[in-house]
Design a protein that fits this description.
Family: Belongs to the binding-protein-dependent transport system permease family.
CATH architecture of the largest domain: Orthogonal Bundle
Strand content: under 5%
GO molecular function, one term: dipeptide transmembrane transporter activity
Helix content: over 70%
Number of domains: 2
Membrane topology: Multi-pass membrane protein
Pfam families: BPD_transp_1, BPD_transp_1_N
CATH topology of the largest domain: MetI-like fold
Distance between the termini: 7 Å
Order of helices and strands: HHHHHHHHHHHHHHH
Largest sheet: none
Shape: globular
Organism: Rhizobium deserti
Number of helices: 15
Structural class: mainly alpha
Low-confidence stretches: none
């Protein structure tokens, strides 16, 4: 087991290094000069050259990449051109909004999708299965930002139950902060719940035809107990896979939703950095998103090994 873990960790480190090089190269190829954008069109060539030197933009690409990589390894993500503060502090500050939002969306999608998918599998081709399928199709078809607008119109404008946008900060209290995240979390969760419903339904249907489930029924267990105690635990691998992918999709997909609800999260920070050509913030945020995706895949791999002993034996 330890050898498997070491191989997975080495693969994670190599993947992160390759991804960091790709991110830095692509950001460097983007059109426009950050120094010129910061100074404007009226800046003199001498002033422009001085700012480029101050920002390190006059150095060769390999030198700048190594300096950036060493800084990242030390926890120094550089200084934002636009905000004039360390990027690490910006990411931590914005993560305090995006991370709870993504966690709320994951919890909501699981609470909606897993019972719905399991019950749809139990009532295969019945009315409940048809309703669950319609929910899945509609929720997948509606984009998260459009669903967010509909939620604002219904629950904020018409009913007045929820705030239409903004974030009061955690210092304003837990309840007001969570209340401002409910609608964006629902907007993010519904499309993912539609996907997870279909995955859970298909996985449970496959397992319900296995011999051990038929044996459980033959021993006198009710259909509900046979499904939840024997079928569902053995159908977890595709569900866990989708959950890992969903969490990263939710954080990356928060860009549009955070702008719709005017939330000061990582997605809004990435959008603002792109608009202001703040290269250092853009590449740090993209690297953070990429590292999160790779880390979640690593966690999903470990979850596979914990769930299915056959995978542990095969890996060994």
């Amino acid at each position: 087991m330890m050898a498997i873990l070491i191989r997975r960790i080495l693969s994670l480190v190599v993947t992160l290094l390759v991804v960091s090089l790709l991110i830095f190269t692509v950001m460097d190829l983007l059109p426009g000069d950050p120094a010129a954008i910061m100074l404007g069109t009226s800046a003199s060539p001498e002033t422009l050259a001085a700012l480029q030197h101050q920002l390190g933009l006059d150095q060769p690409l390999p030198v700048r990449y190594l300096a950036w990589l060493v800084g990242v390894l030390r926890g120094d993500l550089g200084q934002s051109y636009t905000y004039g503060v360390p990027v690490a502090g910006l990411i931590v500050e914005r993560l305090a909004v995006t991370l709870p939002l993504a966690l709320m969306a994951v919890v909501l999608s699981v609470l909606i999708a897993v019972p719905l998918g399991v019950q749809a599998a139990r009532r295969h081709n019945g009315l409940f299965d048809v309703v669950a399928g319609m929910f899945s199709y509609v929720s997948i078809a509606v984009p998260a930002f459009w669903g967010g607008l509909l939620l604002i119109i219904l629950f904020s404008t018409m009913l007045g139950w929820m705030p239409a946008g903004g974030f009061p900060g955690w210092e304003a209290g837990l309840l007001p902060a969570l209340k401002s995240l409910v609608l964006p979390a629902v907007a993010l969760a519904l499309p993912q719940a539609g996907v997870l419903t279909r995955v859970a339904r298909a996985a449970v249907l496959d397992v319900m035809n296995e011999d051990f489930v038929r044996t459980a029924r033959a021993k006198g267990l009710s259909e509900r107990i046979a499904v939840w105690r024997h079928a569902v635990p053995n159908a977890l691998i595709p569900v866990v896979t989708m959950l890992g992918l969903q969490f990263t999709f939710l954080i990356a997909g928060a860009v549009l939703v955070e702008n719709v609800f005017n939330l000061p999260g990582l997605g809004r920070l990435a959008y603002q950095a792109l608009a202001q050509r703040d290269i250092i913030v853009m590449q740090d945020v993209v690297l953070f998103f990429s590292a999160l995706v790779i880390l979640m895949n690593f966690i999903v791999d470990l979850a596979y090994l914990a769930i299915d002993p056959r995978l542990r034996a095969g890996a060994q």
